[in-house]
Amino acid sequence: xxxxxxxxxxxxxxIMDLNDEERKAFEAFLLSFQHRNELKKWTLDxxxxxxxxxxEINLTNRTVVRNGQEVKLTVKEYDLLCLLATNKGRVLTYxxxxxxxxxxxxxxxxxxxxxxxxxxxxxxxxxxxxxLAISIESVREIGYCFKSNP
Length: 150
Fold this sequence. Notes:
Radius of gyration: 21 Å
Strand content: 15-25%
Number of strands: 7
Distance between the termini: 40 Å
Number of helices: 5
Structural class: alpha+beta
Mean pLDDT: 78
Order of helices and strands: HEEEEHEHHHEE
Largest sheet: 4 strands, antiparallel
Helix content: 25-40%
Low-confidence stretches: none
């Protein structure tokens, strides 16, 4: 385990598959730490979702719903949408997008590749964007930015 500047120990995440007997023992162990202020309990929703102005992105089953209708996206379109939506309001460069979505070294044509997939994505999710209040804006010669109004 690493140390922070103030000397606090950084925790680790452990995922365990326990049977009923082991679970009871582990819960008893956790109860002993319940009143320690320096420890926090973190839980995940059963279905983590991104909710953005009429657009629902379900991260568990990789589905996208716009105004109550499921939108069929390719793997790359979905990955692009998640990357841009989780970086809402931040301009991502062509190289950053290409690196994260394609997980490959830039080949010099990432601007064209990313642009092609962004255009297809926009055709599917930015239809009647005024009703959704979402957009993927091109930042000339730099990259793209996802915008969403509450």
